[in-house]
């Protein structure tokens, strides 16, 4: 029959191991608030980037037309007539070029704006995490 003794030192060491193995309870409210903040900020960033990319051609065309809407719509009508009269392979090439240009411009704009967005989001998360209700 083995001799097993529990001393005070053994009990303290065992209780420390139990404390270190236990996880801290997760603060689900803070996690949900942080997730909602990130989703709202990301949606705003995506929407503003999309509006910037879509509004840039309008600005350029208005600038080239001398801020005259009649001239702008005349040029758009000319472009529409050329598109309608084009052969299907030419239309497809124009569509692909337009899509590629949009994706390149949108991607470039997002890459340029991304560091500022991450800094702003980090500041807002720090502020949100620092307040205690």
Features:
mainly alpha, 4 helices, 133 residues
Describe the protein's topology.
Elements: H1 8-21, H2 28-64, H3 69-85, H4 88-130
Brief digest:
By secondary structure, the protein is mainly α.
Q: Would you write up a description of this structure?
A:
By secondary structure, the chain is mainly alpha-helical. It has one domain. 83% of the residues lie in helices and 0% in strands. The chain is built from 4 helices and no strands. It starts with 7 loop residues before the first helix and ends with a helix. The model has no long low-confidence stretch (mean pLDDT 85).
β-sheet strand percentage: under 5%
Q: Report the end-to-end length measured between terminal Cα atoms.
A: 58 Å
Weakly predicted, low-confidence segments: none
User: What is the radius of gyration computed over CA atoms, rounded to a whole number of angstroms?
Assistant: 30 Å
How much helical structure, as a percent, in the residues? over 70%
Question: Largest sheet, described in full?
Answer: none
- How many helices does DSSP assign? 4
Order of helices and strands: HHHH
Shape type: elongated
Mean pLDDT over the residues:
85
Please state the structural category: mainly alpha
Question: What's the number of extended β-strand segments?
Answer: 0
Structural domains: how many? 1
